[in-house]
Input
Amino acid sequence: MSILDGPFSNKDTLRDATVFANDVIARTLPHLDEKTRDLMEATKDGRSLGDVLGITKEQKVALLDLGCRLLQVGETDKAVDVLMRLNQLDPLEERALYALGVACQTRGELEKAAQMYLQFLALDATNPMGYLRLGECLLAAKEFSEAQAALLTAKEFAQEGKGQPGNLEEAVRLLAIPEVASAAPAVN
Output
């Protein structure tokens, strides 16, 4: 089992979770207050909760900045709280997903971190930083073939000029780790 598998690694588990969630919503919805029901109804068209509530782009950026600053000063739990709230307001804010991945990785929660990075990469698929952090998680989990694949992808995108300065050098450094360098290519 890989840290990439996540909680819904097969269709039966995903189906069961969906059935359970739908049942909980159906039983709970009639007991919610009118304002909460109205909010849930307003998001049915695909708008985020933040959009429905009128949260501005500037306010979202302020939450992201606060979460990142809290991470930088070692206040990981507070950072996660702020970043999770931002994710609830705007699930498509990829930078919040990346920062949540960093927070989980800092805590040693490799599976959670990997899942956050995968969600980040689903929204920003050519960003080497997501592949670098995912590679680090896989390396820490001793999944060397998968780490190699993630890091090679980071290297490729960094060579194309994507990401930030230093991403290419970081990918090369991590790929040179003996366990990664000698890993058999991942089979998908």
